[in-house]
Amino acid sequence: MFNLTKNKIIDTNFFNLLILFFFSxxxxxxxxxxxxxxxxxxxxxxxxxxxxxxxxxIRDFWIVSGLTTDIxxxxxxxxxxxxWFAYVMHSSLFNSVISIMVYLFFCELKLNKTKALLLSISFxxxxxxxxxxxxxxxxxxxxxxxxxxxxxxxxxxSKIYFWPVIIFLIFLSFFSKQxxxxxxxxxxxxxxxxxxxxxxxxxxxxxxxxxxVIFLFITYLLLKMLKIEFESFYIQFxxxxxxxxxxxxxxxxxSLISIFNKYKFILIPLTYxxxxxxxxxxxxxxxxxxxxxxxxxxxxxxxxxxTKNQIYIYFLVPLLFGFLExxxxxxxxxxxxxxxxxxxxxxxxxxxxxxxxxxxxxxFHELSKIQINQSIKxxxxxxxxxxxxxxxPHYLGGAQEEISIxxxxxxxxxxxxxxxxxxxxxxxxxxISVKKLNAPNKTFTSDGxxxxxxGNKYYEFYKNFLNEKIKKKNIDEIWFFKHENIPGNVxxxxxxxxxxxxxxxxxxxxxxxxxxx
Length: 517
Prior knowledge:
- This protein has 517 residues and is mostly helical.
- It has 20 helices and six strands.
- It has two domains: 360 residues, no CATH class; 116 residues, no CATH class.
- The strands form two sheets. The chain has a four-stranded mixed sheet with strand order 3-4-6-5, with no helix packed on it. The chain has a two-stranded antiparallel ribbon with strand order 1-2.
């Protein structure tokens, strides 16, 4: 993709790339510090640090997604230390990389460099920045996006070495989160198979299949080397998440009016683009390339409707506008310059609109209804959190009061001589404590998304998993922060009632284990 010749590097591309790198990095870095929504903000914090300390996802703590993101975060912690800076360095650098890839793709579409830069700045504003901290869905989406752009570019260059890179990116996306790449993989496979058969390029199919088999074999070897049981991997990362998706699909309801109102700036340009593409004679390769991008857009819309997260797919708008700009420039209409300029102006307004809604108001992390300016420095909890400003939308009191509770709780944790298991959404406490907190999961929601509930076919498997961890770690007590109100049944559903008694202090609700471990 992205053929930067020596001459290109010494022209405006170099300066555009420099501008884009710093803009995309620092806009993400700036908004990452604005407020906290613990269950999402710290989703990969403790898990990243635990990997450095020898605990592995699947083997030592239950996960349903996020493997790639956790491993990448552990690498950033390894290089920069376990601190907030290293955490947001990860997401900020990722935002820069994907924004640069999008810019280079626009250049391959023969867009004016200034417009390519403006479109890419819009993308950088609406992509990772809405979360700003590492987040599983975003990593999965943007690995898939880069793979998609490479597939489209393949039809322009026919470079065979693209395919190992594309398959590797698809694997990274899948091991970040199983969807949306599972949906996209099915559609892409159908499109590419029909294309290669029609063009009689059977060797390409063989190369892709061999590459997939090699990556699957490497995955199997890594599981064996890390002593992660294949059954546990299959259940935690493939079959149990699939059952969650099946339940959501069974309860899926659709309102066309609601969908149009939310996604009109995606649907309208997509419809117009379909008209432009198929209303004229273009090569089969261009049509197939567009069909791949169309599939990506539809997959993202479907995934957004299925997920319980806030809307995060408005990054599709600058991508669609980029394709529109490319098609308009190919036309012979006398007023194409007017349309082109109008698109950029319209995109500016759309970007500003969503920037204020999602970045300024931090809507993705549910901070839009609180006073962000009341946040205070999180380094009051621990020096490693320097740079973060604390304001939790789910804590009814003030930020200083919550920090005071966390400091007292952190002190109690460090001072106890008991071996404890902490059940909490504050998934950074293990990283700053002098002792392991042995969390069995990454999250502790009671809706079935964190662990199998009673009635699920994997309930007994998880029950055995949890009890084995308690026995192996010789856990004496299981602690809950009282103010978090995490339901006690995330533990009591899996431990016999006569095996614990409940006590409490002013900070924690404590399940004291009384059965022999």
